[in-house]
Amino acid sequence: MSRAFQYYLIYKPYGMLSQFTKEGEWTTLSDLGYPFEKDVYPVGRLDADSEGLLLLTNDNQLKTRLLDPKNKHWRTYYVQVEGIVTDEACRKMSAGVTISVNGKSYQTRRAMATPIDPPALPERVPPIRVRKTIPDSWLSLSLSEGKNRQVRKMTAAAGYPTLRLVRMAIGNLRPDDMKPGEVRELNKSAVLDAIR
User: Fold this and answer.
1) Which single residue of 64, 84, 171, 172 has CA 20 to 30 Å from 146?
2) Are residues 149 and 91 in the same domain?
3) Residues involved in catalysis
């Protein structure tokens, strides 16, 4: 009899690698202290300096489906940037910008970028470095692809360096009131409904 697949939503804290294997001084998913099965792994990743939602599962068919760009699996990020982001910059990012991927020029797919008010988020530890002479602002950026450090490269291409990056949605999966380091077990139907 086959074992049921498992699905977990975690809120990855700043400074943690999206892996279980130790690497240098970084904390890893094993430091969450949750008894994940040995065959449970993240679907995609978030860089150590990014925060927010990460889906973990041992359902390889679902992993393949979510990671294939053909399936246009949307993810939404809240991004704090240096400078006051304009509607024009958001239109530029939404239409697609040229970034470098593995040393080659790459035109990003259509996205959805919108200026937003500062969101209510858990405090980041450590907090971002604030520069008194340069204002900052927030935008919501939704992508259906995930190149290495793509969000940071896109905001930089539009003239706005990223200060803080939080993944707020995977499809329709949202953190609600999750705290950094929190693990939430999901059932398969909830995951499938959220990523249709």
Assistant:
1) 84
2) yes
3) 47
